[in-house]
Amino acid sequence: MSSGYTVFDGSATVARRRTTTEQRILEAAAAALVGGTRFSDLTVETVLELAGVSRSSFYKFFADKAALVQRLAEPSIGEAAQASTDWWHGTPASSWRGLAATVARMLTIGRANSDLWQAYFDAAAADPDVDEALRGAMESHAEMVAQRISALQEEELATSELQPIHLARFMIRTTLTSLVDHLQHGDRDADEAITRTLGRSLWFGVFGH
Amino acid sequence: MSSGYTVFDGSATVARRRTTTEQRILEAAAAALVGGTRFSDLTVETVLELAGVSRSSFYKFFADKAALVQRLAEPSIGEAAQASTDWWHGTPASSWRGLAATVARMLTIGRANSDLWQAYFDAAAADPDVDEALRGAMESHAEMVAQRISALQEEELATSELQPIHLARFMIRTTLTSLVDHLQHGDRDADEAITRTLGRSLWFGVFGH
């Protein structure tokens, strides 16, 4: 499985049984998605069959298939967000090439998890709760980025012509939609051109003046 | 109707009858969408009832509801694309404020047609033919923009560190997804901050060095 998904393995027996059932469900759903099943075609029934668990066990762990897909995608989305956090807490003003490298790292994570990411965005489009969770995660990341931009404005490194929170939201949404679009429709040969375009353009949006 | 949709009014009687039926179908669909019906809930039956036309008449003009929605949205999408074309053929290098003003103009067009735009993007997500048409329109606009960027590179005004076609696609996709996201989820009070952020950031991505 290329999802990179891991779950906590409890040491108590009851906790272990629970974790194992939960993990089997997660792995079955990931296998179906990686095998080409779209979120809209994924059913709880298919997951039950693949995992060999009962319906009542499923609902002990997940409210519905959208919640399941959200759990599957969150670790790798979190990993991509961490790459952004690391860059912002380093020396972001030094060069656009650092941002391009960070975007390239995100693309690598996204490609290793592209079916899960696609299913997560499909789930968000179909389910208001998942959409709210995704928007909440983006907004909390935007708040961190906005704080860094404010600090860089005080050092007169970042442009003072834009409000940090709007610039932060713009950068996050643009990075995410560009990467997802490229993973879905783009050509792998264009990886370098895409990450360079994204990294350089976004960098000059903050540090160009 | 705020769709801004107009159709050619033929002068021959047969042409006029045809145009009138077609126009009634278009206006009925536009009214349903502007009245809050989502693309997924729009049915050909509803449109037939509202327009007072027969099923066979409908299929004389439109292959399906996706084709109908595409026809409804294209004029205003074309108007927004024209605002971009005008800016690129003016003096784009002079200031980021010109691009912010152009984005503001697109937002005004988008807001007057937001239900049609939303339905069009929903149709593209649901129907591969509409998706291909939308991508084709974006690609042909990108080719025009890339030509202008090439010319501006030769004048040493635009950055030479990026390939024009990748930069053009990035700008177009970013503008469209940002505006659609703002129309769907954003606050009208943020209009000025959004168009300023978008215009300034994208401008520095091309002209910053």
Largest sheet: number of strands, sense, barrel closure of chain A:
none
Q: What is the correct CATH architecture of one domain in chain A? A: Orthogonal Bundle
* Shape descriptor of chain A: elongated
Strand content of chain A: under 5%
Number of strands of chain A: 0
The chain-level structural class of chain A is mainly alpha
Examine the coordinates and then state which fold CATH places here, giving the name of the CATH topology of one domain in chain A.
Tetracycline Repressor, domain 2
Oligomer: homodimer
CATH-assigned homologous superfamily of one domain in chain A: Tetracycline Repressor, domain 2
What is the helix content of chain A?
A: over 70%
Per CATH, the class of one domain in chain A reads Mainly Alpha
Low-confidence spans of chain A? 1-11
**pLDDT average of chain A, as an integer?**
92
- Rg of chain A, rounded, reads 19 Å
Question: Termini of chain A, distance in Å?
Answer: 46 Å
Order of helices and strands of chain A: HHHHHHHHH
Largest protein interface, residues of each chain: A-B, 30 and 30 residues
Task: Describe the structure in brief.
Chain A has helices spanning 13-34, 44-51, 55-61, 65-88, 96-112, 114-126, 128-154, 164-185, 191-207. Chain A is mainly alpha-helical.
